[in-house]
């Protein structure tokens, strides 16, 4: 079944955003709703997918690309932090008007790292189905609208498709030495998961692997270990399938109720990011097309592919998108944990106040 879904993802590559996650998610949803499949993938396989995804995310922190744009990166960092607060505002609106819990709303509205948000939902007591729905609603809107905007902003000349060299079925990691790359990948994933649990990180398997992978990438200790080719396709297929199999026929009614608010919040976040991109272009004198692609809340892979075809400033865009991916993936679980502690403390205070108000309570 996995091999069929990987092939389906490859067929959807030219037209769909993140097809290796989206297509298995949709197929898993259909199988779950129709009753063809009732069991989710085994938990150890899910944990392994989270660890590998964490390693992949850590490698997006590209130091060489950052050094090329060091002079203009500071305003983008500020905008990235502003975007985080904007997403928190959208999450508040989802909680207020749709009744979504805070953890689910935070992960669903966070800009960047859609795969990480979906994969870590269960660990953070969020509803992975709602998170996936909100994340891919935004991703679909961004991917559909960006090429239309770029036709106005950039020259219509684009690169021909297929610039990247074809990879065989045994191409599993990014480097040339596949055996060494796989050994390093497994070691970082395993040690990162252990580190995450020891440090009691939120979503420890994913976050621990991401932090260790980023440290190894930044220090230059090892290279060429990021999941790639067939392994990367299998990784995203597993994550999408796991979420899709959680749906039910009854649950689809809940998503229909979420759609109006989720769509309004998504449009508001995207429009605000576009306004920030316009402001950055005015301040830094960088073309608006580059600032827009660097700050748009779409998937990093789709954005980089679009930037490459439009002859945009790829080092700048990859640096800012990579930084935001890292920031969002790291800060969102922390925000959820802080919010949970505050709410738990408020509940305890309220319970204590009620208890002290009871007749005969000691003063």
Q: What report would you give on this structure?
A:
The chain is mainly α and 363 residues long. It has one domain. The chain is built from 15 helices and no strands. Helix 1 crosses helix 2 (19-34) and helix 1 crosses helix 11.
Largest sheet: none
Helical content (DSSP H or I, runs of 4+): over 70%
Strand fraction band?
Answer: under 5%
Tell me, rounded to a whole number, the average pLDDT: 80
Shape designation: globular
Alpha plus pi helix count: 15
* Unreliable spans: 155-166, 351-355
Output the radius of gyration: 21 Å
**What number of structural domains do the residues give?**
1
* Distance, first to last CA: 65 Å
**Total number of beta strands:** 0
Category from helices, strands and their pairing: mainly alpha
H/E element sequence: HHHHHHHHHHHHHHH
Helix and strand layout, with pairings?
Blueprint: H1 2-11, H2 19-34, H3 43-58, H4 63-68, H5 73-98, H6 102-109, H7 114-119, H8 128-153, H9 178-198, H10 204-219, H11 229-244, H12 251-284, H13 288-295, H14 300-309, H15 314-357
Helix pairs in contact: 1-2, 1-11, 2-11, 3-9, 3-10, 3-11, 5-6, 5-12, 5-15, 6-8, 6-15, 8-12, 9-10, 12-13, 13-15, 14-15
Name the descriptors.
15 helices, mainly alpha, 72% helix, 0% strand, 363 residues
Short description:
With 363 residues, this protein is an all-alpha fold. 72% of the residues lie in helices and 0% in strands.
């Amino acid at each position: 079944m996995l091999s069929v879904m990987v092939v389906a993802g490859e067929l959807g590559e030219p037209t769909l955003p993140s097809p290796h996650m989206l297509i298995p998610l949709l197929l898993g949803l259909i199988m779950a709703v129709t009753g063809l499949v009732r069991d989710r993938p085994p938990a150890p396989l899910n944990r392994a997918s989270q660890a590998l995804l964490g390693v992949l995310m850590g490698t997006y922190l590209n130091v060489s690309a950052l050094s090329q744009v060091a002079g203009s990166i500071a305003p983008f960092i500020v905008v990235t932090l502003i975007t985080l607060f904007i997403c928190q505002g959208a999450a508040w609106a989802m909680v207020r008007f749709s009744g979504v819990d805070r953890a689910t709303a935070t992960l669903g509205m966070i800009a960047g790292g859609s795969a990480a948000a979906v994969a870590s939902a269960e660990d953070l007591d969020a509803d992975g189905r709602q998170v996936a729905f909100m994340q891919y609603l935004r991703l679909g809107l961004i991917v559909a609208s960006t090429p239309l905007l770029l036709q106005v902003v950039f020259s219509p000349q684009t690169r021909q498709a297929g610039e990247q060299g074809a990879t065989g079925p045994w191409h599993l990691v990014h480097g040339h030495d596949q055996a060494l790359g796989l050994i390093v990948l497994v070691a970082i994933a395993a040690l990162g998961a252990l580190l995450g649990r020891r440090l009691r990180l939120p979503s420890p398997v994913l976050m621990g692997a991401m932090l260790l992978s980023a440290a190894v990438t930044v220090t230059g200790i090892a290279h060429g270990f990021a999941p790639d080719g067939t392994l990367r396709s299998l990784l995203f297929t597993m994550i999408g399938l796991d979420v899709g199999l959680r749906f039910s026929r009854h649950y689809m009614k809940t998503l229909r109720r979420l759609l109006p608010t989720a769509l309004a919040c998504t449009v508001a976040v995207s429009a605000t990011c576009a306004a920030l991109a316009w402001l950055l272009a005015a301040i830094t004198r960088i073309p608006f097309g580059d600032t827009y692609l660097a700050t748009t809340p779409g998937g990093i892979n789709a954005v980089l592919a679009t930037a490459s075809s439009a002859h945009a400033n790829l080092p700048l865009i990859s640096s800012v998108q990579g930084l935001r991916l890292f920031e969002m993936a790291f800060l969102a679980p922390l925000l959820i944990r802080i919010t949970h502690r505050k709410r738990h403390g408020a509940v305890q205070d309220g319970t204590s106040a009620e208890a002290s108000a009871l007749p005969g309570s000691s003063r």
